[in-house]
Structures are given as structure tokens and as C-alpha cells.
Amino acid sequence: MFRWLAGRGASRRRVAQELSLISPQAWRHAMAGLPFLAGLSRQEQEALRDRVAWLLASKVFNGARGLEVTDDIKMAIAIQAALPIMQLDPALYEGWIEIIVYPGGFLIPRSEVHEDGVVAEYMLEASGEAWDGGPVILSWEDSQPGNPQTVNVVIHEFAHKLDLYGGIADGMPSLHAHSDIRPSVWMRVLDATFDSFGDALDAIEREIPRHIDPESEAAAPWYDRLPLDPYAATDPAEFFAVSTEGFFVNPLPLAQALPEWYGLLAQYYRQDPLRRLGFAPHGMR
């Protein structure tokens, strides 16, 4: 009980109990709805199941707005959340205890300080949010299997948790277990790649005809040429989270456009989704 209250991971015995409750049928059903996991080897699937059991044993799931969080919902979310730490220490997800699931999008309060010093407060509709030291909040509509395989709100928000575990949300997760990655190298590649992506976004936006609203669906053909969602240009923390989405669910555009960044992510996560999903090495060139 005290481990749970402190946001620490469950005991090995509790994790083993949870692992024994994952039936082969439930596992196959959940995996089938997530095509980007199709290339996992048997060993990787076993590692992923272990991390899923750890999550189910260590976190409490609560529904909002009357949503009943079923075992199927828990399993689908836990599999996606566990993928980034499949080869990492699950302690990276410690320090908090709750996953809140809404039926759909939800509103979060935001404030913005204008140049004249006036503070504007407003409500922003979101599909996910990760609080520093607090819960991960998800929209089930946007998290459930069957959504477009170019984005993944669960992976995005849990990437923020990895970032926050390393300190402030700045795009650099904890590297204490990665003696092969120097923090200075991470920041150099992150800064250079973030700037490069921002330049590419600026170039795309200059190409959009003036009669087309850049915030509308009509602008999608231009933005679709980018390797990541434009939201990645918000700041380095969002760049890391959006990049992590792309790395796991749609790695080819990222690897082709930003190969050094892709390679660093592969080194950090100790995974190579590009090869796992059957892309030949030359696909990165």
C-alpha cells in the first residue's frame, strides 16, 4: 500500500499476479488493433507483456464523465503506454499513480500573457495531458485502437512523463541508465533538429496560398509533407513527444527526414521500429 501511495511501482509478486491474469485471447485481441506492433518478435512481446503487467499493477485507472474503464480499455492503454519502456526500467514511470480516461476530448484551463501584459484565460480542448507529479489524462475516443496510425495520444503523453522524470519538460529524458548517450550530444542533436524542423515548417507555411486558411483541412496537403505533425514545433518538450509518436507508429518519414534524431531515439529507447516494421535500411536514405 505504501509503495502505491508513494507512486512507486508494484512489488514483483503483484506484477506476477497481474501477468498471470492476461489471457492469450485478450492479449491477441488488443495487439491486433495496433498494427504498428505487428513486427514485434516473441522476445519483444514477452518484454512488452511484463511492462503491461507492471503498469496494470502500479497505476489506478479512473473513468471520467461516467465512462466505465473496462479491462479491454485498460489493456489497450497499457500496451501503448508500455511500448516506450519495453526495453527500459519501468521506474521511469514512477512518481505518480493515476490514469484518468474521458470518453472523448476534454477541456483544460489555459492562460496566455499578451505583449501588453494582459492575461487572457481560456479553455482548450485536448485529447491528452500529462501532469508533472500527477496523472496522465486521456480521451478514450482518441486513444482506442483503430485511430489513424500517424498519431498516438497515449505514447505522446507517456513520452512527456519520460521527459518530466528527467527534470523539467525540456525534451531531454533521464539518461542516467544510458552511458552510451552524453547529455551534451542529446541537446546538440535535439536543438539542431528542432530548429531544422521549424525552418521546414516555415517554408511549408510560406507555400500555402493566401486564399487557404492554414488552420483548415484544406492546408493538410502542405503539412502532410512534413515528417511530423506541425505541433512538434511548439517547443522542445512537444518536439520530443511528437517525435516519439512518429518513432513508434510511423517511423519512415522521421528516419528519412531527420536520420540523426531518429538514430538517437533508437539508441534511447533501445528499439528500431523502422526495421521491426519491415523497412529496408536504404529506406532511410
UniProtKB/TrEMBL annotation:
A GO molecular function held by the record: aminopeptidase activity
Matching CDD domains: Peptidase_M90_mtfA
Lineage top rank: taxon: Bacteria
One GO cellular component term noted in the UniProt record for this chain: cytosol
Alphabetical list of Gene3D superfamilies matching this protein: Collagenase (Catalytic Domain) (3.40.390.10), Glucose-regulated metallo-peptidase M90, N-terminal domain (1.10.472.150)
UniProt xrefs under PANTHER family: MTFA PEPTIDASE (PTHR30164), PROTEIN MTFA (PTHR30164:SF2)
The protein, known as: Zinc-dependent peptidase
